[in-house]
Amino acid sequence: MKHARAIVRLLLLLGYSGFAFVRVTIAVALAARMESARLGVRVSHFHRWSRMMARILGMSITMRGHPAPPPFVLVSNHLSYVDVILVGACVPGVFVAKSEIARWPILGSLTRAANTLFIERERMSDIPRVLELLDGVLDAGQGVILFPEGTSTAGDRVLPFRSPLLEVASRRTLPVTYATIRYETIEHESENRRDATAEGGGAVCWWGEMTLAGHLYRLLQLPGFHATLKIGARPIADSDRKALATKLRDAVASQLVHHSA
After folding, report:
1. Which H or E run contains 228?
2. Hey, is 198 helix, strand or coil?
3. Does the predicted model carry a pTM greater than 0.85?
4. Residue 240 gets which letter from DSSP?
5. Looking at 121-167, which runs of residues are DSSP E strands?
6. CA atoms 197, 202, 207, 209: torsion sign
7. What is the C-alpha to C-alpha distance for residues 187 and 172, in angstroms, rounded to an integer?
8. 3-state DSSP call for residue 117?
């Protein structure tokens, strides 16, 4: 039964993603010549795609709190590639992702079509280019979504936040919204607690040396799972990007403790 479920879901993911890719390509071509209008079309279509992906995956979503109206910067802890679908379904915006994701099947094509900004994390020289693009996103009245830990974790802790991309907010003294992500299987077991000790890894959280294909297939076998995105009550601003990163990391860590309790 679970293998049949995984195969059906995989076919639905492929089919709908192919349809969505064609639809957004046509919509962008028909949009106004202004880049801001095209960006808005891409963000809207990715939001729609994310909501459908969540349904196909069997992910029920609860969002607590309200993100700031665009233009905004939103940061969160990072547990899995599923985070992009969760946050994208709740908060329309432009993601920043590591360059490897652009080469992933399905998700890579859709994130490129949605105008996701890819960064070579190991090349400091790539940061000015991405910051310039982020400025353009904010100037176009859209939101920016970052995972400042730089990698996904088992959910048992929050890694230090990398500060370079937060400069887009610090130099504008733009308050940054923070959020926490939590996953729970249908048996009501918290992924955030279980993953830290499970030898086989988590069913939703993806970290370390887990292969993408193997983890995805196991995820598709689940009868369902629940995701909660909790938005912090008070956005945080600071003109110093390193201080801003520390404050945001501490706020996320503190909220995660209460979120997972």
Report:
1. strand 225-231
2. coil
3. yes
4. S
5. 144-146
6. positive
7. 45
8. strand
User: CA-CA distance, 26 to 44, in Å (whole number)?
Assistant: 14
Which residue bears the tokens 């432009």? 94
> Tokens 């994130």, residue?
111
* Residue written as token pair 């190991």: 122
CATH 2.40.230 for domain 2-260, yes or no, is no
**d(C-alpha 42, C-alpha 216), whole Å:** 25
- For residues 37 and 218, give the distance between their C-alpha atoms in angstroms, rounded to a whole number: 39
Q: Do the beta carbons of residue 32 and residue 103 sit within 8 Å?
A: no
Q: What are phi and psi of 217, to 5 degrees?
A: -65, -40
Q: Where are the domains of the chain?
A: 2-260
Task: Write out the chain's pLDDT in tens, 261 residues.
Answer: 888 999 999 999 989 988 888 888 888 888 767 777 888 888 998 999 999 999 999 999 999 999 889 999 999 999 998 999 999 999 999 999 887 777 776 667 667 766 788 888 778 888 999 999 999 999 999 999 999 998 888 888 899 999 999 999 999 999 999 999 999 987 645 555 444 433 334 789 988 777 888 898 999 999 999 999 999 999 999 999 999 999 999 999 999 887 555
